[in-house]
Each structure stands twice: as C-alpha cells, then as structure tokens.
Amino acid sequence: MGYTRQLGGASQRRSFINAFKKWSDVANINIREVGGGDADILIDYKRRDHYDGSPFDGRGRTLAHAFFPGSHDISGDTHFDDDEQWTLGTKEGTNLEIVAAHEFGHALGLGHSSNSKALMAPYYQGYDPDYKLLYDDIYRMTSLYGGRAATRPTSRPRVTTRRPRVTTRRPRATTKRPSTKPSICDLKFDSLFMNGDDRRIYAFRYRKIYRFESDQNGIEKSFTKVSRKVLTPRVPINTGAAVVDRYRRLYVFKGSKLFRYTRFRLDAGFPKRITIPFFQNVDAALEYNNVIYVFKDDKFSIWHENYSRSPPSGYPKPISSYWKGIPNNVEAALNINDGYTYFFKGSKYFKYNNRYQRTEYRKDKAPAWLGCGRAVPK
Questions:
Q1: pTM of the predicted model, to two decimals?
Q2: Are the C-beta atoms of 303 and 285 separated by less than 8 Å?
Q3: Which CATH class is domain 9-145?
Q4: Does residue 212 register a pLDDT over 80?
C-alpha cells in the first residue's frame, strides 16, 4: 500500500478500510490486508505517465483509476493521482475515501453506472459525509459475488425526487482500463542490476523480474518470473532503483524503504527506513569503481547504507555537472564494467563513456537490449 504525503498514513489506511467495507458489508466477499506484494489489489499514488497504459493528467479531470480483475499482473490494482488535492472530512479538495470506494468497485469488477446518483457513476460528485451505496451499486455487486444475509435487494426501492446538489467542479472520469497487453519490445525498466554471482543482467518491472540472455541481447523468455518467486521472502513492486555493491549484495530502493539481499534472500534487519529525504523515492542507482551513485530528478549523489543524516559534503550535485548528455529523471542505470555506463529513459538508452566522461549516443532501447528487430551493437 502506497501513501501520499498530503495525509497521515493512519488516516489513509482507515479510509481505504472504510471504502472496502462499503462493498463487503453488502456482498459476500471478504477483504483482508496482506503484506509483501502478494495482494490482489495493490494501492498506490502515481503522477503523469507511470507506465501502466493510463497516464494521469495533473490536477483536475482524472482523479484515479483501477484495473478490472483478471490474470494480468496489474489486474485489480488501484492508482490515485498524487497531483490531486486529497482531503478527508472537508468539502475542499477531493475526498479520498469516496473516490477509493468508487475505484475499489472497479477493482472488484464493476463498470460505471448510468445512474448519476450511484457511487459508480462516472463522475466525482463532491464530498458527502454520509455517502452510501445506491440500489444500482448493491444490485450489481451482489450479482457478481452474492449478497450478505438480509442485504441483497429483492425489489427496487420507491423512487423519490430530491433537489440536485449543485457543484461548480467540472465532472471528471475516474476509471481507465488498458486496451492491449504490452509487448516485450515496449518493456520499460523500473530498475536494472548485474548480479554479482552469475554476472547476468536483471530488470525489475512492476511485479516481475526479467533476466537478459548471456550475450545481453534480449530477454531470456524461459526465466521471466514474478519477482517474489526469485527474491525471498519479500520484494517490493515498482522498485525505484536497484544496485549491487562490491560485496555482491543487492540493494533495492522503494520509496522510503531499503531492501538488501544476499544471493536473492533478504538480509536480516531489512527492509530499513531511509531517513535522508534525498535518498527516498530515487530514480536509479549504479555502482562505479566500488562507489554507489543514486539519481533523483536532476541531481545525483554518492550513497552508502550507513549514511543517516545527510548526503556527504558537496552532494547532491546536478546530473549535468558530471554525467554530461544524460537527461534528468532517468528510469534506470547500469554499469557492466565494459568502460561504459548505460542510462535508460522511455524507449531510449544513453551510452556514457566513463573514461572520457561524455555521452557517446542516444539510441532506441528495443533493438540493442530487448532483441526486437535486427540486433545491433550496444
């Protein structure tokens, strides 16, 4: 479960529990919280293009989206636009619990309702401290899962007319669904690392871990697995960065948590909280000359797990001050000891010459790294 900094963690968690309870009170469905990335419905906050096929658009319009149940990795997952003003118990901003209840309806299998008063109507209707499920919401959910005793409606209620509540807020659609299954040639990396034991390159993407062929040209199709099946007993999804140190220990950054693995098993005492703000929510990390570098937005810093108060003196520094030609907000980085460092962003990769401290070129990632089309030298 991810959190926004706009609200306290406990209040967000309580809101999500209340939102789920709206559905479990009427339908024959039991919802419980689990840890370790094994959940059917993963909750997180995202901004703009977060690589699930449904980019957010900043404040306004799309508030959140959820994916319908199914066998795809992302099925059931629910994302909230972190650019929105999320609030609780006030008419200001956008009420988190009401939107969450709507999105969880999608995650459980409901589409939008044609009833403009229903919770599952396609537009956010503003804050209502006493919001309820309408007949249409209850009927459709219990049609999927069956009803709790004495809760499933057997007949339509008497219709009464009420004066509509007027809102000046522009209606906003809150749900999208991916239209096509992504191709391996469109694969984006959450993070990359070279394993110190087998000298193979691995990539994290959402819940999965991929291994490159031994010649580093293309993904080894027989290996692709759910990451928690490889890194035990737990591993985060949507990793921020991954890097292997000179002792062959794998570090995985996720938000404000740090995971460390030895031979793919989580070390005792981990995950740990990252206390230095700059090292939270990092974009990428790499090891070069036995030093680990982390990248975030338009800056970078050297890093060690023993840093507890602040980055070392003089850091962070602008990426452009050393890694000339490398863009800001990189998505992944990798040093494979061939004299070059590789940076990835979108469909492109950047080859950086370590000796001459310059970017050699920017090229399409798919042919060189994913084995799509004609293989080309890196």
A1: 0.54
A2: yes
A3: alpha beta
A4: yes
